[in-house]
Amino acid sequence: MSDQETVDPFRDTVRAAAERRDALAKLRVQAAEAYDSAGLPTRHVERWKFTDLRGLRRLGFAEAHTVDAPRLPDHVLSGEGVRLVLVNGRVSPSLSQLDALPEGVRVRSIAAAIQAEDESVADRLTLDAGFTDAPLAALNTAALEDGWMIDVAPGARVEAPLHLIFLAQNDASESAAACLPRLVLSVGEGASLSVLESHVGAGVGATFSNSVSEIAVGADARLGHYVLQHERTDSYHIASTAIRLDERAVYDGFVLQLGAALARREVRALLAGEAASLTINGAYLGDGERLVDNTLYTDHAAPATVSAETFKGVLDHRARGVFQAKTRVQRAAQQTDAHQLHKALLLADGAEVDAKPELEIYADDVACAHGATAGDLDRDQLFYLRARGVPENQARAMLIEAFMLDSVEAVTDEAAREALRAALAAKLSDMEGIGA
Question: What are residue 367's DSSP bridge partners?
Fold first, then answer.
């Protein structure tokens, strides 16, 4: 038995999952074999060189069980919307509003499809099953229990947003509760939809949430996708998202990371159709010894495609931030416009950020650029506020809030922008003295 096998807490789980005989049996075997071969990523893997999972390896894990009477914490995104809730990776009928779905939106539980022995459900989980180089996505596929399958009909213009809530809850503190939520979202040709997504934690013990989302946006369709991650500070949060955009499809995305001991969000986007447009912006806040990782891979495969990625982070104490963004422009993707930018504020000597923007270009008619900056608060701005009688702590807080809110202001959806702004303001208020 290898050293890796003895410390990998999930290998037995995926091997047992491979023995299950249900509608996902073949897919489970493929995913289990992929995870069994790769194992939990180490820093020897290039995409994980800045994010160390040894703390995750040392935790004891138990399956996250059904919560009898779940309650949503206060820090989910605010605002109106039809609520769809997963608790520990399982559909919560009592918290979800399945009887209030907008016209043109069809929602189905993955567990219900498996129970009905609907083998077509396996076809919905192949946009990016992660069998080749994403073992944590393979772990999710192998041991999948439940999740949402959401379809928006072609041409549907959905006014009310969907609010997807992923609650990780551990009511017994002896070992971390592991949950594997799944989302499959398809927006039909010419349709339009906004999605708010809250990843939050509750209970008394640590959790490990390992979610996978597969998103397809059809020709001439638009998806607004706005995500908050605010899990417990003793928990691990890893999210893998695969996106496919067809001709003239628009994806407008934003992620705000405020919680968890270790949080990593990995997005892989394929701009498959001509004139497809992708925006993925974000902001994150780290204090204590937290680690926040945003990793992006964008593949331009068609002409006249556009991608824009701008992230801002604030790190205090001994917190660490990671920003990895690779944009690939294929030979056929002439007239591509692709830009990446990362800015970080380091408020303490122990804070650290690792930024790795990359461009891989095979076309010759493109406009591509990337950049990264890191530094302390602007001393001139701080002096300006102090000279006008603002106490130093208050002046620093004002500058930090302005830096973070500037990224949120770029969100085009008004309701989402207000919800994200409120979540950020509440977090900054709770962290009185940050940067002092």
Answer: 337
Query: Cα–Cα distance between 374 and 68 in angstroms, integer?
Result: 46
pLDDT at 382: 83
SS3 73: coil
Cα 67 to chain center, whole Å?
A: 24
Could you tell me where the DSSP H helices lie in 3-62?
Answer: 3-7, 11-17, 25-38, 54-58
Burial group, residue 364, by CB count within 10 angstroms (0-12, 13-18, 19+):
exposed
Q: Among all chains, which residue has been given the structure tokens 């891989």? A: 360
| Calpha distance 184→278 (Å, rounded) | 19
Residue 136 and residue 34: Cα distance in Å, rounded? 10
In terms of phi and psi (left: phi > 0; alpha: psi -120 to 50; beta: otherwise), the region of 64 is beta
Q: CA triplet 357, 363, 366: central angle to 5 degrees? A: 70
Instruction: Express the helix, strand and coil content of the chain in percent, nearest 5 each.
Output: 25, 40, 35
Alpha-carbon gap, residue 309 to 251, rounded angstroms: 12
Torsion-angle region of 358 (φ positive above 0: left; ψ -120 to 50: alpha; else: beta): beta
Report d(CA 134, CA 49) in Å as an integer.
14
**Residues 6 or more apart in contact with residue 54 via CB below 8 angstroms:** none
- Does the reported pTM lie above 0.85? yes
Q: Which residues contact 157 (CB under 8 A, 6 or more apart)?
A: 104, 191, 192
Give pLDDT, residue 261.
Answer: 95
57: amino acid identity, one letter: R
Mean pLDDT of 202-219: 93
Tokens standing for residue 24: 């996902």
319: which residues sit within 8 A by CB, 6+ positions away? 286, 287, 288, 289, 290, 291, 292, 351, 352
Specify the 3-state DSSP secondary structure of 154: coil
| Contact between residue 208 and residue 178 where contact means Cβ atoms under 8 Å apart | yes
Dist CA 319 CA 287 (whole Å) = 5
Question: Measured between alpha carbons, how far is 255 from 336 in angstroms, rounded to an integer?
Answer: 24
Question: Which amino acid is present at 255?
Answer: V
Give the strand pairing for 291-300 and 192-203.
unpaired
The more confident residue out of 56 and 140 is 140
| Nearest C-alpha neighbor of 337 from the set 281, 295, 279 | 279
Bigger pLDDT: 62 or 378? 378
